Amino acid sequence: MIILGIDPGLTVTGWGVVAKSGSRLSHIANGQIRTDNKATMASRLVELDSALAAVIDIYKPDTGAVEEVFVNVNPQSTLKLGQARGVAMVAVARAGIPVAEYPTKVIKKALVGTGGAEKQQIQHMLKILLPGVQLAGEDASDALAVAITHANMLGSHR
């Protein structure tokens, strides 16, 4: 099973693809999509949608998962994040792929064992779970964490 994880953001959206075979996970790819912050909101959302469609077309995931929006102190940031998250969910759903959502605390707990884990702890755990992985950046590592969480949750529902 091929699993796509997405860490949505308007400026940078991370994506990660893992394969699950039984209880074994392996890294396929990860990356980051950066939108032009000088472009209009609509143009940036289209750019994000096109880039995610390309990732889906290349890796052909069987299922996907998106990190849920957390509420920022700045309401404008929360709204922008929500719009990027909506585009990510639509891109996956449009491809006919089921998409799940996970809160940040659940992702951190699934990987590190505590919902308050730091980014460095997540990156360290990714290197243990996916030996030899080269992380494209913080957002890509968060997206791989989303994919691994979904892979583990799929196993617990069977």
TrEMBL record:
Q: Which positions are catalytic residues? A: D7, E67, D139
Q: Which GO terms describe its molecular function?
A: hydrolase activity
Binding-site list for Mg(2+) 2: E67
**According to its UniProt record, which reaction does this protein catalyse?**
Endonucleolytic cleavage at a junction such as a reciprocal single-stranded crossover between two homologous DNA duplexes (Holliday junction)
- Entry keyword set: Cytoplasm, DNA damage, DNA recombination, DNA repair, DNA-binding, Endonuclease, Hydrolase, Magnesium, Metal-binding, Nuclease
Cofactor dependence: Mg(2+)
- Annotated positions binding Mg(2+) 1: D7, D139
What EC designation does it have? 3.1.21.10
Q: How is the cofactor bound?
A: Binds 2 Mg(2+) ion per subunit.
Instruction: Give the main EC class.
Output: hydrolase
Localization of this protein:
Cytoplasm
Predominant location:
cytoplasm
- Write down the PANTHER family for this protein, in alphabetical order: CROSSOVER JUNCTION ENDODEOXYRIBONUCLEASE RUVC (PTHR30194)
Could you tell me which NCBIfam families the record lists for this protein?
ruvC (TIGR00228)
Subunit structure comment from the entry: Homodimer which binds Holliday junction (HJ) DNA. The HJ becomes 2-fold symmetrical on binding to RuvC with unstacked arms; it has a different conformation from HJ DNA in complex with RuvA. In the full resolvosome a probable DNA-RuvA(4)-RuvB(12)-RuvC(2) complex forms which resolves the HJ.
Q: Which family does it belong to?
A: Belongs to the RuvC family.
Function description: The RuvA-RuvB-RuvC complex processes Holliday junction (HJ) DNA during genetic recombination and DNA repair. Endonuclease that resolves HJ intermediates. Cleaves cruciform DNA by making single-stranded nicks across the HJ at symmetrical positions within the homologous arms, yielding a 5'-phosphate and a 3'-hydroxyl group; requires a central core of homology in the junction. The consensus cleavage sequence is 5'-(A/T)TT(C/G)-3'. Cleavage occurs on the 3'-side of the TT dinucleotide at the point of strand exchange.
Q: What is this protein called?
A: Crossover junction endodeoxyribonuclease RuvC
User: Species name for this entry?
Assistant: Novosphingobium jiangmenense
Q: What is the taxonomic lineage of the source species?
A: Bacteria, Pseudomonadati, Pseudomonadota, Alphaproteobacteria, Sphingomonadales
Q: Which gene encodes it?
A: ruvC
